[in-house]
Amino acid sequence: MSSINVDQEKCNQDGICAAECPARIIRMDSKEDYPSPTSDFEDVCLKCGHCVTVCPAGALSLDWLAAEDCKPINPELAVTPEQAEQFLCGRRSIRTFKEKTVPQNTLEKLLEVACSAPSAKNQQPWHWIVVQEPAEVGRLAAMVIDWMRGIIRDDRETAESMGLIRVVASWDEGYERICRGAPHLIVAHADKEWGFGAEDCTLALSLLDLYATSIGLGACWGGYFYRAVNAYPPLFEALGVPSDHRAFGAIMVGYPKYKYKAIPVRNRPRVTWK
Ligand SMILES: Cc1cc2nc3c(=O)[nH]c(=O)nc-3n(C[C@H](O)[C@H](O)[C@H](O)COP(=O)(O)O)c2cc1C
Fold first, then answer.
1. Which protein residue's CA is at the shortest distance from atom 19 of ligand 1?
2. Does the N terminus or the C terminus of the chain have fewer Cβ atoms within 10 A?
3. What is the model's pLDDT at position 1?
4. Percent helix, strand and coil across the chain, each rounded to 5?
């Protein structure tokens, strides 16, 4: 049975674990009490680990998570607001890559960081397909073009509204606008019945994108690619997405060929202040 374990020698009875528990399943009825689980703890716990990692005394553990297993936050690594602003606003979608592959352990690290993203009910529903071989990325991109040619043939109006005619024309001229010639492609997929698959996978891919920038990689969302995955069964199968899943995002990854010198201007926030 899952529960919380409190080391009464260490616990300073500050109630922080109870206050921070998102499911309100840690009780501390008075300042003299020690934290204890509610009767529905096991059913309701999100397994977010907040209670363990917020305790300043390291007094709390869960059956599946000890305080010592959690990586400490090093204050010396905190970023300044100026660093954060430049880093976040300086990230760019990269569309020209060096002809160099990324080591597998670096791709693994990207995924590890991506998996720290927030997810509804802490479901962490994402699964990953990493296309490691540049030639395979090219083969899959060609399948997206096949899908686009089908739409152009059968439904020209939709093809025009989706901008497919120009993309296919570029392809025919030798310019690859699907995966942009990137050496690798990462696809996030999740159970199609999970109601927050799109949000959860998008957030994970967004962290991946940002972390990629921090380690000198470049990334770009493959919007055409994952739309095609879900709409074109031959591509869905070629990629190996499970039949009860849906692709919720794809991102190209590689070493950027060029470096940006400045941050482009974006729209001002459209806000209604109430
Ligand atoms: C959902 C989504 C789908 C996208 N699809 C593509 C795509 O298929 N090909 C591409 O080159 N860029 C794609 N992009 C990148 C956008 O064009 C890019 O984010 C935008 O132009 C702003 O540039 P920045 O990311 O450098 O700020 C996509 C971005 C998002 C968020």
1. 93
2. C
3. 54
4. 40, 15, 45
Q: Which of 100, 259, 127 is nearest to 204 (CA)?
A: 127
Number of domains into which the chain is organized: 2
In this prediction, residue 71 carries a pLDDT of 96
* Placement of tokens 């109601």 in the chain: 195
Residues of the chain where predicted confidence (pLDDT) is lower than 70: 1-2
Pocket of ligand 1 (CB under 6 A): 92-93, 95, 180, 220-224
Is there a single domain that holds both residue 64 and residue 101?
Answer: no
CATH code at position 19: 3.30.70.20
Phi, psi at 131, each rounded to 5°: -90, 105
Please count the other Cβ atoms lying within 10 Å of the Cβ belonging to residue 6: 21
The per-residue pLDDT for 63 is 94
In a domain, 216, yes or no: yes
Give the domain extent around 17: 4-69
In this structure, what DSSP letter does residue 33 have?
A: S
